[in-house]
Amino acid sequence: MAQPNSDIKYLTPIAVDTKKKKYCRFKKSRIKYIDYKDPDFLLKFVNEQGKLLPRRLTGTSTKYQKKVAQAVKRARHLSLMPYVADLLK
């Protein structure tokens, strides 16, 4: 018979969601302009195949994600970055 006031004991600890909060690195460091002539910086927002990483992975805000996309497009157009690559990084 179970006691009504007894503590509940678990064999395994309860999973608590302790993810890091994502932040926009542009807002944090107060960057207003994203330079398309700096391909090393832009490579942080591109995966191995050359595709842009989504906001949910990078934590970038909508405003700056659009600016990053535009800068990557400009860098690709000027051949500073490849359009498609097998192993970019």
Blueprint (SSEs and pairs):
Layout (H helix, E strand, L loop, with lengths): L24 H4 L10 H4 L12 H4 L3 H16 L12
Task: Give a nutshell description of this structure.
The protein is an all-alpha fold. It is 31% helix and 0% strand.
> Quick one: overall form?
elongated
Total count of helical runs of at least 4 residues: 4
Provide the helix percentage: 25-40%
User: pLDDT under 50 segments (min length 5)?
Assistant: none
Polypeptide structure, described:
The chain is mainly alpha-helical and 89 residues long. The protein contains four helices and no strands. The model has no long low-confidence stretch (mean pLDDT 85).
List descriptors.
single chain; 89 residues; mainly alpha; 31% helix; elongated
